Amino acid sequence: MHRVWYVIGVLLVLAGLVHLGVLVVDGGPWEGAVSWRKPFTFGVSFGLSVLTLTWVAQFVRLRARSFVLGAFAVAATLEVALITLQAWRGVPSHFNMETPFDTAVARTLAVGGGVLIAIAITLTVAAFRSDPGVPPSTRLAVRAGFATLLAAMAFGGIMIARGLFEVMTGNQQLAYTVATALKPAHAVFMHGVLLLPALSWLLSRTLPSEQARLRWIRLATWLYVVVAGAVAALALAGVTIVTPSTASVLSAGAVSALAIAALALAWLNRPPRPAPAPSGSRPEKVAH
């Protein structure tokens, strides 16, 4: 069943890349509430998230794993589909209450965001349960990765809440500015759940010492938290180093190469399947 979620993740990434091509051909603004950038960045980011959680969930003790991953994949697909639909219609996707249809789309996106946050909480709690079968370095990487994902979801929830507040008070245009101000913080925390476990996986194939791998993961975790925390603090203070949308692209782009490398190595190093027995052959009798 997990192959289905992998396929969905790949298709979302491809859909995002297709819209990057549309942006190049059709032109239009990069920033703003109406841009081909949105289906591009959301497609790539959500696609990577589906691929990541499907892979990382194998290190987590969780009941109904397939259901949780399926719910995340469906919610992510719905988010990307609605954002893409509104981009083709030439109207904003989030906080757009201009027509009954646009209102339904905006509210569905908000509910979908709530579902994603609930799933992130579920997976984070499960990741902190003890699992003696997972090496300490991998366990730390997975726990730290899910913690950063939860931080990203928290910033996403704040963005949605702030935007909806402005809409409810009649400041719909201000909603886009207020919500996107925290996008760098949301973006920089979003893919730690891929970077840290992928680093642990790669170290397991280069460093024979588990103690050495654990030290490297601790260092990487602290560096990631310090950098992400600094970006989040600046965003909360209203200081902009890069534009919010550029931060999303840089975040997604930074993990794309590592994601592709990790998945390719995982495929190349998969255990070989046993050869099927010749048809008509009988098992040999063991002499006693």
What does this structure look like?
The longest helix is centred in the middle third of the chain and has 33 residues. The chain has ten helices and no strands. It is mostly helical. The protein has one domain.
* Helicity range: over 70%
Structural class label: mainly alpha
Percent of sequence in beta strands: under 5%
Terminal residue distance? 42 Å
Low-confidence stretches: none
Instruction: Report the mean per-residue pLDDT as an integer.
Output: 79
Q: How many structural domains can be distinguished in the coordinates?
A: 1
Backbone CA Rg: 21 Å
List SSEs in N-to-C order: HHHHHHHHHH
Major sheet summary line: none
| Dominant shape | globular
Summarize the topology.
Layout: H1 2-26, H2 37-56, H3 65-89, H4 100-127, H5 136-168, H6 172-180, H7 183-190, H8 192-203, H9 210-236, H10 244-268
Helix pairs in contact: 1-2, 1-3, 2-3, 2-10, 3-4, 4-5, 5-6, 5-7, 5-8, 5-9, 7-9, 7-10, 8-9, 8-10
Quick structural gist:
This protein has 288 residues and is mainly α.
Keywords:
mainly alpha
